[in-house]
Amino acid sequence: MTESLRTDVRPSESRREFLKGSAAAVVSGSLAATLGAARMAHAAQDGVLKVGLIGCGGRGNGAAVNAMNADPNVKLTAMGEVFADRLTQARGVLQRQLGDKYAVTDDCAFSGFDAYKGVIDSGVDVVLLAEPPHFRPRHLRYAIEQGKHVFCEKPVAVDGPGVRHVLESTEMARQKNLNIVSGLCWRYDYGVRETMKRLLDGAIGDIVAMQEDYLTGVLWHRGRDPQWSEMEYQLRNWYYFTWLSGDHIAEQHIHSLDKSLWMMGDKPPQKCVGLGGRQVRTDPKWGHIYDHFATCYEWENGVKMYSYTRQMAGCKNTVEDYMLGTQGKAEVLRNYIQGQGEPWKYNGPKASMYDIEHKELFEAIRSGQTINNGTYMSYSTLLAIMGRMACYTGQEITWDMAMNSQEDLSPAAYEWGDVKIPEVAVPGVTKFV
């Protein structure tokens, strides 16, 4: 690894610096809004929107392809990734896939911990954030400070301080009339949208209970090279470290949790309890995350949501959202409602929700409209973090506890070398912070 990949900036110091700049950003909101309108008019006039990608793994490359599919006049002009080898690999893949929409020159391809700044400062109009979730609050803040529109993958943070940071950035974006579109993709699926609209309009009466299942198999692991430092090993296998991924209840199950939040009008629950652990993913190579969670969330009106997620091989898999009401029931991903009359099933237009996210983002930019998904993407992230806290500690966790948590999972410094190897959480022993 080259020296350009090093940084001596401590996460806590960076966070304080970001927060210090927040007030000034909000005060200058009206000026920024004017500049934002000018940028959008220019983009509409010359036609081409320049897109920058931060995070060149599978999801990042996929997001770049989806973005290029979504509009005839967009180009990928900058890319950033912490690892130079993965950046080179992704550039080759995307150049072949995107054809003339690939316009990333060598001086707009950045590696290292500060690669995100290179991408954002390269003259792009839109930034795609697809790095490991830990880095999202920092990268989102810088993008908004620099006046960029953002597609932001999920989850948006891994701890309470990170969620609070993103909520501040969301307000900054609102002040500046900048778009933030979330990677919680089911909110952009036509069938799910219509199903949820009908449910929110009372198709099954008042909601009594919800069940969210995300039961799947095992995922990738990139092994360990003896030449890698502990920091490099954890970053290359980021999924298995809570400080990087938030654990799979946040990184994957958030899609299910988000639909329960949506069903409750995006109002958060009061509290939750849960259980979880590591039954089969016990080898140290799997880091310290759990392989199953079962959580029960309760809202102020008494509605409960029962949440189950598991990543194990050789087991029964199912991914579905079950809604139970006073006058019927529904399966959201199946787009099926059984109310008091004839059963209803969505039979309307179909399109890739992954493309639609970007299509609606670009349309908003060109029309001067604003989409800001920042609040619900933050709440859904905290819903997952809250459930993880309940399962890790074995305690009841309230929404206010999770929102005000002081648990900052950031490492001491972003640099190649030794980094703490986290211990596996033990319910009844691990403490809430």
Gyration radius (Cα, Å) is 21 Å
Question: DSSP strand (E) fraction?
Answer: 15-25%
- Spell out the helices and strands N to C: HHEHEHEHEHEHEHEHHHHEEEEEEEHHEH
User: What share of the residues lie within helices?
Assistant: 25-40%
Which secondary-structure class do the elements indicate?
A: alpha/beta
Unreliable residue runs: 1-45
Per DSSP E runs of 2 or more residues, the count of β-strands stands at 15
Spatial strand sequence of the major β-sheet: 14-13-12-11-7-10-9-8-15
pLDDT average, as an integer? 91
The shape, in one word, is: globular
Count up the helices: 15
Task: State the end-to-end CA separation.
Answer: 35 Å
Question: Could you give a short account of the major beta sheet?
Answer: 9 strands, mixed
How would you explain this protein's 3D organization?
The protein is built from 15 helices and 15 strands. It has 433 residues and is α/β, with parallel strands linked by helices. The chain has a nine-stranded mixed sheet. It has a six-stranded parallel sheet with strand order 3-2-1-4-5-6, sandwiched between helices. Strand 2 (74-81), helix 4 and strand 3 (109-111) form a beta-alpha-beta unit. Helix 1 packs parallel to helix 6 (136-145) and helix 6 packs parallel to helix 7. The longest helix is centred in the last third of the chain and has 20 residues, at 374-393. The chain is globular and about 60 Å long.
